Amino acid sequence: MRGFLAFTKKEFREQARTYKWLIVLSVFFLFGLMSPLLAKLTPVLLSSMDMGGVTLTLPKPTAMDAYAQYFKNMTQMGIVVLLLIFGGTLSNELVKGTLVNILAKGLSRAAVLLSKFTAAVILWSAGFLLSAVTNYGYTAYLFGGPRVPALIFSMFCLWLFGCFVIALILFSSTLAAGSFGGLILSAVTLFILLMINILPKAEKFNPVTLASKNTALLNGTVKGDSLYLTIGITVALTVLCLVVSILVFRKKRI
After folding, report:
1. Which end of the chain has less neighbouring CB within 10 Å, N or C?
2. Measured between alpha carbons, how far is 128 from 231 in angstroms, rounded to an integer?
3. What are the start-end ranges of the H helices in the chain?
4. Angle, CA 24 vertex, CA 31 and CA 233 arms, to 5°
5. What is the phi/psi pair of residue 97, to 5°?
6. Nearest partner of 82 among 232, 230, 187, judged by Cα
């Protein structure tokens, strides 16, 4: 336990030294700030464009449009940022051999992986919370404060999917070689899951569903209880990725 805490602190220092905290908090703050602003200004900008005499009649933007824009940004660019920030969290250390001395001092490989997962999830959670609070506050300022059903549950689903992505990155990094091996394998796996999600019968078993039904949860076309199985499967796959990562990492030559 002492080794786990010590290595987790080391991960936090490394994240700060490499400006990961600054990057994640800044980018996610912008996502939270820009989403309601884009929802507010897009109809105005489109109406002011010269459409060759064609008059556009656009509905008045609402808070729902702001949240729809927010989830669009977070499920697309937000996940890309997550992959880029954490894609080399283990691969780079394996390539550089910086873990050799630490492991030689008696720190278990399981502690290394769990520390990296913990530090990454905390950074992801901090960035996500900042973007969510910013988006909620600015949306309330621009559109008033209407009650949006299932907002917290919808955000929880997206947050959980991010935790799954982090576990997938660690799992991929124990399998693939090179500095970008884990990143590439994770991206390919997510692309395959995205393609599988095209099949309606596969949606309830696919973690990607948690990042694709957010707006539908808000407007009521998807009920929260229909995602309980997906949540359970995502949690199970996250734990499975970590367990298999530890097993593979214990046998991996460094």
Report:
1. N
2. 18
3. 2-17, 20-48, 63-73, 79-86, 91-96, 99-104, 109-143, 151-175, 181-196, 214-219, 228-251
4. 85
5. 75, 20
6. 187
Share of the chain above pLDDT 70, in %: 92
Give the CA distances from residue 227 to residues 59, 155, 179, 233, 235, in Å, rounded to whole numbers and listed in that order: 31, 13, 35, 10, 12
130: CB partners within 8 A, 6+ apart: 25, 28, 29, 32
Please report where in the chains the tokens 């091996």 appear, as a residue.
181
d(CA 207, CA 201) in angstroms, rounded, equals 13
- Tell me the C-alpha distance between 29 and 240, whole Å: 31
pTM: 0.90
* pLDDT tens, position by position, 209-224: 999 999 889 888 888 8
What's the confidence (pLDDT) of residue 3? 76
Dump pLDDT digits (tens) for 168-194. Answer: 999 998 888 777 888 899 999 999 999
Three-state DSSP string of 34-89? HHHHHHHHHHHHHHHCCCCCCCCCCCCCCHHHHHHHHHHHHHHHHHHHHHHHHCCC
End-to-end Cα separation, the chain, in angstroms: 23
- Which tens digits make up the pLDDT trace of 116-129? 999 999 999 999 99
Cα(152)–Cα(109) distance, integer angstroms: 36
Picking from 164, 169, 172, 159, the residue whose alpha carbon sits closest to that of residue 234 is 164
Q: What average pLDDT does range 107-117 have in this prediction?
A: 88
Query: What whole-number distance in Å separates Cα of residue 236 and Cα of residue 204?
Result: 14
